[in-house]
Backbone:
C-alpha cells in the first residue's frame, strides 16, 4: 500500500480525490491537510463522509516531508510551489493541481501568473496530460496536472494540430460549470449570481490561454483565441472549437483520424459522426468525449466534454499517479458517468 | 454468475440498475427490454453508456420466462403484475419496482390503484424494505420494492412507532426531486415547469400514503397525513415528520434509540444531535441519513434523506437481490455519496 | 414627488426596491448608499441597470438626516437601529427591513438578537404587516418590515388563529429560495453548496420563530414549531402549516373563512379548494397565494406562497410606504407574476 | 383601444404576450385561442393569472376573421400560414411568431421548412426586426417576427457586416435557455434531461442558420456556421460570434461604430469596452446587450444577450405592433431586467 497525502483537502478537488482514492486497492490516504479547518474531522467539513472517513485535518503549513509516497497539492498557484519546494525529495511523487508546474517555460509562467519560487524544480516536472506525455510521466516525480479548460481544449484539437492540418487561427469557445471556480466564498460563485444566467468572462486574458497555446505551438504555429463562459450548473466543461483546415476533410475521415490518434486511450471516446458530446454523459467519470462536424469549405467544429473535477482535475491526477506508480492506469477510475 | 434481466430498461430506475449492476461481481445483465426502443442499442438511448454497454433492447412484450435468475420489473403499476404473472416460476427472483406487490392487503391495493390481476401471487410476495423484512426477503421469490416516499418516511419514523412512543396523528412533509416522476414526456416534468418553483401536490390523496400508513399501523394505531412536494432538482427526497410523543424524550435519548434500532444496518446513518440530513450528502449512494429534534413538550421533528433513485428504488432493489441471493448485502452498493 | 433614500442599496432587497420604485409615479430616488461600493455607480454593481440608473453610491456612514422623505434601511440587524437613531426626526418615514423594529417587546428582541440601541424608538414603531396593522401603519413614522418567513407564516395561519379555531400546537414547515440568505459571499450560499440539494436548518432555534410566535399569541395561546429549509432556487417561500382544529371544518367552509378574512386585501389570493400554491405563480409579484386542505378529524394543512424579495421584503416595504404616504396601496406593485 | 387576439395562447410566447399586453394602455385582449385547452379559463392553464385574467379559451380552428385589430400567431410553422391565410384582410395587423413569413425567398423557406401554403401573402410581409426594417414594418400588415437565435445573431454582427468589414467566414456559437424549445411535453425538455448538462445540437443543420445567413448576405457575401447549444436555465440567449476583420479595429473604435449604428435604438445597449453581456442582465426585458473584443490581428469576438421570450419573441412582437400602430415603440416594453 502506498501512502498518500492530500495537501489542501477541503476544496472540491480535494474531496474528489478522497472519493476516488477511497476505493483504490493499492493506496491508503494517511494525510489530509487544511489550514482553515485544522483540528476538525474531514467528515465535519464534508458531512457526506460521515462514517466513511473521519480523519482529522492537520495544518497544511506543517512539515510533511517524507510522510507519504504520493502527495497531491490542491493549493492555489503560488502556494503550491512553496509546498512542492518543501516536499520534493526526488523519491516521492508530487502531483500539483495548480498551475505552478504546467509551464516548462518559466518566463511564460511568470508573465501569466507570478514570480516562480521553485525554478530549479521546473526541469524535473512534466505537463501531466497522459494522452500526450505518458512516457515522460512514468519517469518524473513532479507532475503539473493540466488545467480543466486546457485538458478539454488540447484533447479536442490535438489530432488536427498533430497532423498540421489547420490553416490560420482558431477560436476556442469553452463553457464551465461553477465548481471550476473552487470552494471559496466569492460573490461571483453565489447561487443567486450564477443560476438562471450565462456569461463570458476574461476574453483574451484568461490564464488558461497560454497553457493551451504553448501545447498547440509544439505542432503548429497558429494563434488561439480562448473565450471562457460560466454555466449555471455544478460540473462539466464543454469546449467548442472553430477553425479552418488547409484541406477540407470529410467528417467520416476526421472520425478515422481521431479514432486512430486515440486508439489506445482508455478515457477518450470518439462519438459517431453527427452525434455530439453532452457534459451529462461524462459527469462523474474520467471520460473525455469528442465529436465534430467538418464542412466542405474546410471549416470545422470540434466539440469536447469532460467532467472538470474528474478528467479536468482529480481524476487526471489519479491517472497520473497510476502511471507514475506503474500500475493499471484505470485503477479507481472506472466509475461510470451518472445522470440524472 | 447469476443472469439478470431488466424489464423496462429505458427509464431512470432501469438506467440506475444498469449503472449499479455493471460492476457487480456475481451478476451478468443478459436481458434488457423496452417496447418503445426495441431494436436500438441501450447506448443509443443513454449515450453515457457508449462503449460501456451496447446491448440491443428486446421487446418487453416477448416471453422472457426462464431466461434469467433475477428479473427487475421497471414497469408502471398494472403492467408489472402482468409481467410478474408471466415470469413467476417459484425459482427465479422477481423484484418489482412498481406498487403491484407492496400491499399484502389486496383490497387496499385495489382501492388505491386498480384491479389486481395476479392475486394468487400476493401471498408469495414480501414488502422489500430490508431494515424491517430482511428475514422474509431471504425466503421469497417475489419482492415488492417499496416506493421512494415510503422508504424515507417509514425508515424515519420506525424507531418511534416500533416502541409505541407516539401520541396522536403525525404529519409527513416530504419533498422529492423531479426524477421521482419518471422519464416520461409530461408537461409537469418540463424544465420550465419545475425549475425556479416549488409546490405541494396531491395533499391527502397521494398513493404512497396508504403504503406508509399500513406499515405504521402494524405498530401503532395512528393516522398519518402525507404531503408531497416537488423540488427543482434531479434526485433526492427529504422527509420532515412532525408529531408528539406520549412522553417527552431528550434528543440525546432519541439518538440512542435510533442508533440501537438501526445498529446492524449498513445503509442507515444516524446523525449527531443538532445536525440534520441534506439530500446532497446521500446523493448517488444507498444511504438513508436520519436526524431529529425533540422538544420538552413532547413535540418532535424527524428528518430523513435518501437518493430516491438509489435507496428509494434501484439501490434498494439491488440490496433486496443480494439478500435473496444470500450474498453480501452491500455488494455493488458501496458507491459513495457525490457532490457537488 | 417624495424623495426616497435606500440605505444599503447593493443587496438583493436594495436592488428590488430600485426596480420597484423606478416606475413609481410619486417618488424620486435621490439617495443610494453603500460602504462597500461607495463612489461606484449603482450600474457598476448591478450592470442590469446600465442606462437605467447610473447614480453614484455615497457612504452609508455619512449623515443623511433630512435628505429624504422616506428612508428604506436595507442593513443587517444591529446596524439598522443605529441608522434609525440617526435618521429619525418624527417627520420622514423610516422603513426598516431588518429585525430591529419588529418586536414591541424589547426583552424578546434582545433575547432573540442583541442589545437594543434605540429603545426609545420602539414605542414609535409598528410591525409592518399591512393585512394586520394597516391603520397603525398610517400613523407611524417608523415601520418594522416583517421577515420573509413570518410574512408567509402569519398570513397563512391568521384566519384560523384570529377566530381561535386551533387546538394544540402547530408545525410550520417553511422552504425558502437562496436569495433569502442575502448577497454576501458565504460558503453556504455558493451555487455548488446549494444546487441539487435540500436541507433543513436551525430547527427550533431560528430567529423568525419568536417573530411568528408573538403575533400568533395575540390571538391564541398555542406554541409553534418552526422548521426552515433551503431550496435550490433563487426566490420564493412556500410554507406548509400543520395542526388540528378544535372542531373539524370542511375545506369549503375554510375557503369562505379565508375569503371573508382577506376580502379587502389587494395582494392575497385564496385558491380554489384542492388547488395549492406554487412559488412560481407569485414570483416577481407582491401576491401571497394561500390554499389548504381540511380533514374530517380536524387535522389541517395550510399552504402559502410568496416571493421572498417582494411580499417578503421590498414589495411589502413599498406597500407600507404607500400606506404611510396615504396613496393607493398598490402603486408600483402591480407587476404580474412571471414565469418561466 | 385596439382589440388584440392571441392565436395559440397557451405556450410560453402566448403567456409572455399576455403579461406584456395586460398593462398596455391602448390595447384590449379580446381573443385567446387554444385547441388543446378550449373551454378552459386561461387562468386554469396558467394559475399565475388567477384573478388577473380569467378569459375562456376558444378553439384556434374557429373562424376569427374580423374580430381583432391585431392578431399574434403563436402557432408552429405550417399552422401559422394556414391561420394567416384565413385572417388576412389587408386591414388588421398579423404578427406571426413562427418562421412562415420570415423569408422573402419562398424557395429558401421551402428548402428549410416545408411547402408554403400562402405564397401570395409573402410579398405583403416584412421581416420584423425593427432595428433593420422599421420603416417597412410601418407599412405592412403581415409581420414575420424573427427567430430568437437570429435576433441575437443579426443584432450582434450587423454593424460589422453593414460596413462590409468582415473577411472570410464567421462562426456563431449560440446558447439558449430551455424555454426556446416551447411548452410541449418533449423528452429532451424534461428537467432531468436538461439540468446539470450542456450540449450542442443540430450543428450546421439548424433552421435558424438560413434565416441569419440571408440577412447577412444582404451586406456581405460571407458564410456563417451556426452552432446552437442548450443551456440548463429557463430563459436567455447568449451568442458569441467569431471571425476576422479585413482591417484590425481597436475595441474602442468598434465601440464607437456600434454606438453610432444603434444610436437611436431604445432597446440596444452597447456595453463599455472589456465588459460583456450576461443573460441575467436582460432577463424579462426587451433589451439586447452587446459587447465585444477586438484583437490586433483582426480577430474579433462579439457577444450579444437577449431574453429569448421577450426581445427574441413576444417583446419584439409587441415592438412590431407598436410600430405598425404608429404609437410609442416602447409602450408596454419598459419592464426592467430582473434578477436574481
Residues:
Amino acid at each position: 500500500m502506498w501512502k498518500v497525502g492530500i495537501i489542501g483537502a477541503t476544496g472540491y478537488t480535494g474531496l474528489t480525490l478522497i472519493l476516488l482514492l477511497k476505493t483504490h486497492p493499492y493506496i491508503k490516504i494517511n494525510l489530509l491537510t487544511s489550514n482553515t479547518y485544522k483540528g476538525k474531522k474531514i467528515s465535519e467539513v464534508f458531512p457526506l463522509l460521515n462514517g466513511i472517513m473521519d480523519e482529522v485535518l492537520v495544518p497544511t503549513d506543517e512539515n510533511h516531508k517524507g510522510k507519504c509516497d504520493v502527495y497531491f497539492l490542491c493549493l492555489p498557484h503560488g502556494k503550491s510551489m512553496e509546498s512542492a519546494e518543501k516536499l520534493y525529495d526526488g523519491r516521492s511523487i508530487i502531483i500539483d493541481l495548480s498551475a505552478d508546474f504546467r509551464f516548462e517555460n518559466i518566463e511564460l509562467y511568470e508573465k501569466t501568473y507570478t514570480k516562480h519560487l521553485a525554478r530549479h524544480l521546473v526541469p524535473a516536472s512534466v505537463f501531466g496530460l497522459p494522452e500526450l506525455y505518458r512516457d515522460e510521466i512514468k519517469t518524473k516525480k513532479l507532475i503539473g496536472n493540466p488545467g480543466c479548460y486546457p485538458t478539454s481544449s488540447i484533447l479536442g484539437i490535438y489530432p488536427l494540430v498533430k497532423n498540421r492540418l489547420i490553416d490560420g487561427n482558431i477560436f476556442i469557445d469553452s463553457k464551465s460549470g461553477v465548481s471550476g471556480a473552487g470552494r471559496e466564498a466569492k460573490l461571483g460563485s453565489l447561487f443567486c449570481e450564477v443560476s438562471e444566467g450565462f456569461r463570458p468572462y476574461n476574453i483574451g486574458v484568461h490564464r488558461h490561454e497560454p497553457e493551451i497555446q504553448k501545447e498547440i505551438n509544439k505542432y503548429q504555429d497558429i494563434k488561439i483565441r480562448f473565450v471562457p463562459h460560466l454555466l449555471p450548473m455544478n460540473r462539466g466543461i464543454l469546449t467548442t472549437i472553430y477553425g479552418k483546415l488547409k484541406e477540407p476533410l470529410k467528417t467520416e475521415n476526421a472520425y478515422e483520424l481521431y479514432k486512430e490518434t486515440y486508439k489506445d486511450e482508455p478515457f477518450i471516446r470518439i462519438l459517431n459522426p453527427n452525434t455530439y458530446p453532452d457534459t451529462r454523459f461524462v459527469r462523474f467519470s474520467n471520460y473525455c468525449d469528442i465529436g465534430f462536424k467538418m464542412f466542405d469549405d474546410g471549416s470545422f467544429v470540434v466539440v469536447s466534454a469532460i467532467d472538470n473535477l474528474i478528467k479536468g482535475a482529480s481524476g487526471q491526477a489519479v491517472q497520473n499517479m497510476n502511471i507514475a506508480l506503474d500500475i493499471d492506469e484505470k485503477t479507481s477510475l472506472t466509475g461510470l458517468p451518472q445522470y440524472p
